[in-house]
What does this fold into?
Amino acid sequence: MTENQFFADLEQSIGNVKPENIFILTDSNTEKYCLPYLLRYNRLNGSKIITIPHGDENKTIESASLVWKFLSENGATRRSLMLNLGGGMITDIGGFCAATFKRGMAYINIPTTLLGAVDAATGGKTGVNFLGLKNEIGVFAPPKKTLFNVVFFKTLDKKNLLSGYAEMLKHALLSTKDLWNETLSFNPENPDFEQLNQLLIKNVAIKENIVTRDPKEHGLRKALNLGHTFGHAFESFSYRNAKPLLHGYAIMFGLICELYLSFIKLNFPKEELLKIKYLAREFYENPEFLCNNYDSLYELMTHDKKNETEEINFTLLADIGDIHINQTAAKEEIFECFDYLREG
It folds into this structure.
């Protein structure tokens, strides 16, 4: 997308809302690297800027309180608009604050990370972490618009690019073999941003199609949780042990576990499982947990929001695009997945 196209879309989106005033939520990174680009758009002159510390560890009720306080003290109303400029942390907490302030004000997401673009910024899930658990407090509240511009992704380091790439692989697994192979052909070591833009368009279309058909996760939308039951446990465990793991890295490890579980329970093709395992070995770090951590990880999985009974709930695949929601597994099978992930 060109700069002119991006600002034309932003103009139209703001015009559709007709806000009394505009607030821009950033974190300490996006305020420095991305806000100056956004402020080239003259209509945003006079907007009030809210900045919170960067990092998922700051996606908390305490940070939300700071945002609500700023809104309250600076004339925000239900007819105000908030632009969430940042990665998944900002779009999650910004959407949550907008949705709950005075029972709801409009917001637009402008993701500045690849992960944010393909994951948190679309779909209408908002929230904050609580008591060490991911997104434990939140609401379904879709943005008025989500606007993408790959110019922001050019500022990302390799790890953050890889973090978003993991979610793109997830969407491809839920779609077709053609998209799966096309996504595997992307080289995160030497990214082609035009190819990335085309893959992003396809990824967002997959998610939006699913969300439109099941906005509040009663059925089909659970497909988007592929890799996340294990992944959220790995992520929470990493924060508990003061070795924070990027969300996409946790999801990559979760995909390997849940595709292995798919292999042993639904005969998912082993060659496709090996493709993602070898890719992870080439580009991603090794997971940092030991056998004596299995029980702690399992306990974290029991808190997953997708669980509807005492059993742990998974989305599994019989093949690429052949989705099976509401699957369960025995504790021994889950530990077998941990073993598979840790194997060289």
User: Anything to note?
Assistant: The CA atoms of residues 87 and 219 lie 27 Å apart.
